Amino acid sequence: MGCCASNPAGGSKASRTKRWRSTGIIGLRDSKLKTFPDVVIDMERAVRTLDLTHNKISDVPAEISKLVNMQRLLIADNLIERLPGNLGKLQSLKVLMLDGNRISCLPDELGQLIRLEQLSISRNMLIYLPDTIGSLRNLVLLNVSNNRLKSLPESLGSCASLEEVQANDNVVEELPASLCNLIQLKSLCLDDNQVKQIPDGLLKDCKSLQNLSLHNNPISMDEFQLMEGYEEFEERRKKKFDKQIDSNVMMSSKGLDIGVDK
């Protein structure tokens, strides 16, 4: 650990720390930090949101477990290679942003973050996800795009609140059948992988699914259209498109994206 590299333009260290304690929000993005700041750990229970985005931090200390009331941890675009196991003690954590680091695996203790709603760890070096991810029953968003994943764990089907999965730009070859259990799932993005087929019941059982993107995979549109539940999925997808048009949402020049290359 270490001290802050420089004072942000918010006054003296004392006034800055006082402000952090009163708001619970610590903003240190783009602060040229090379180490995790001691002052943050010293604040312990006062921390609610910690933003260390875009620094050069390479290590997350075990003492981070003292921040037991922290709800949002934003530590994207650093040089982190591993996370401490006792990260799992952050029982209040709802948002964890780790994009753009050098992480190759996540600790099993990740599954202890029972209140976690958003986990984003794109642009890392992940080769697998821990089976304990299935314990994240409140997880709504999972973004693991731009990694080295060959598969998604079967336990993912236990993340009952999951609405969006982004896993583009990996080397995923097959999907777990348990994805069919995700009745809240609205969007599944798997562009630029090696997926040859999707679970038989996915379109039929995932009754909330509105977006399934499989561009640049070895799966054909013909196979996709023959799947049970395809027509119902199409109806949901078109309703979403129509709703976006009615709301004057800016659409791609391509119009309605069918989700699979022809």
UniProtKB/TrEMBL annotation:
Residues of the Disease resistance R13L4/SHOC-2-like LRR domain: 86-166
Q: Which Pfam families match?
A: LRR_1, LRR_14
Q: Which InterPro entries match?
A: Leu-rich_rpt, Leu-rich_rpt_typical-subtyp, LRR_dom_sf, LRR_domain-containing, LRR_R13L4/SHOC2-like
Per UniProt, which keywords does this protein have?
Leucine-rich repeat, Repeat
Assigned GO CC terms: cytoplasm
PANTHER family (UniProt xref):
PTHR48051, RAS SUPPRESSOR PROTEIN 1
Report what the protein is called. Answer: Disease resistance R13L4/SHOC-2-like LRR domain-containing protein
Q: Which organism is it from?
A: Brassica carinata
